[in-house]
Amino acid sequence: MDCIRLTGIRCYGYVGYLPEEQVLGQWFEVDVNLWLDLTQVSQSDAIEDTLDYRQTISLVQNLVKTSKFALLERLAGAIADAILDNCNSTGATSRGNYPINQVQVIVSKPAAPIPDFNGRISIEITRRSCN
Question: Among the options 56, 69, 109, 125, which is catalytic?
Answer without folding.
Answer: 109
